[in-house]
Amino acid sequence: MLQILKERGYGFCGYGDWGGVGKPVILRHDIDFDPIAALAMAELESSEGVRSTYFVLLRTDFYNPLERGNVERLREIARLGHDIGLHYDETQYEDGDDAIAAIQREADTLGGALGLPIECVSMHRPSKASLEAQWSIPGIVNSYSSEFFQGFEYASDSRRRWRKPILDMIESGKYPRLHILTHPFWYGGTEASLEESLRRFIERAGADRLGSLDRNFTGLDSVLGSADVLSARLASLRNERFGTERLVLRPLRLEDAADMFEYTSDPEISRFLNWAPHGEPGEARDWIASKLARPEPDDLLLGIELREPRKLIGTVRAYRFDAAACSCEVSYALNSAFQGCGYMREALGKLADICFDEVRVGRIVARIDEENAASAHVARRLGMKRVRDGDFVVPIKGEERIQHTYVLGRRP
């Protein structure tokens, strides 16, 4: 959809500055359930040079916008160039309450927490009365005003179903102004049915609750079992972003396929691994899709993205988490064009911090081919030590290879 909008000459804008755009499109995203999904969409849009507006519920059963992690996510959405607005839910108030005053209070609270101006509002499942009221709020644009509903052609994806044929509308060129509402919750790295999307959200909610208990209940693993708690810790991290000075570690996306193919097509990258170089970008895309569709429960796979310019240059992976041994293994791959710059040491150091501080393992292991000098160098720079009598033989592409074992213990 974004590409077609660009091809048809639409300019992406906000609610306060559309007047200076020749053929404006306002993209509105209501965050009804999941700020994590909203950030993923914001990143994708930013990579495409697209600006949109994300509306945040202050009062909801599904997430706390004032919680530290969500504050960071919403600030990151704004840092990517998007606008943040208030998503107002009138059902949280009694009949007869002053809606305009309530909107202003909520906007002040949200803006104060984020350190951002809140200059527009959308309504969450608005009643007929609230739509007809045409509320005028000082300093805040009402996205449901006639200016945006009569002056623009409006389309939304309620329950992930477009009420109008959105692609046909865009391609027709008939509409000089478009106002498009989507809900980030329904979109992800892979196609999923309505039922699948809801079930995944419900499953993740259980892991999130267990993770909250883990952060607030000392010795939870001794009560519920270390394996269950470790799985919850991993589940809570799988959709997160982690920053370093020059890099962002984040979940992979299908859009990463072209960048990934740059290094997965290099025979040197897979020389010591049990997979052949990719012959075309579609293989990289298929590999990413398989990981997104069926994530391993004991696997934390993160892409390495440069902050400037934004580009995927490799991956780091922590896997084989063992609750009994309080350990995990790590592996890593980096585009040859970016080797020798300290990027992998930076990324692997951050992954080690995550494993020690968030998953709370006591030991990190790397198994490295005896001829893989580059990987061994990175491991040593991280502080890993080669284990005496830790050599073993593994079959790689039909050949028996010797691997050395390197170990890093939890820092004091």
Which percent band covers the strand fraction? 15-25%
* CATH 2nd-level architecture of the largest domain: Alpha-Beta Barrel
How many E strands? Answer: 17
* CATH homologous superfamily assignment of the largest domain: Glycoside hydrolase/deacetylase
- Overall structural class, as computed from helix and strand content, comes to alpha/beta
Report the CATH C-level class of the largest domain: Alpha Beta
Description:
The protein has 412 residues and is of the alpha/beta class. The protein contains 14 helices and 17 strands. The protein has helices spanning 2-7, 35-47, 68-79, 99-114, 128-133, 146-149, 166-172, 194-216, 220-224, 226-237, 257-264, 281-293, 343-359, 373-382; strands spanning 11-13, 24-31, 53-57, 83-88, 120-123, 141-142, 153-156, 178-182, 242-243, 247-250, 300-306, 311-322, 327-334, 363-369, 385-386, 392-396, 399-409. Strands 9, 10, 11, 12, 13, 14, 15, 16 and 17 form a nine-stranded mixed sheet that branches. Strands 1, 2, 3, 4, 5, 6, 7 and 8 form an eight-stranded parallel sheet that branches. A hairpin with a 4-residue loop joins β11 and β12 (311-322). α8 packs across α10 (226-237), α11 crosses α12 and α13 (343-359) crosses α14 (373-382). The longest helix has 23 residues, at 194-216. It is globular, with a radius of gyration of 24 Å. The mean pLDDT is 92.
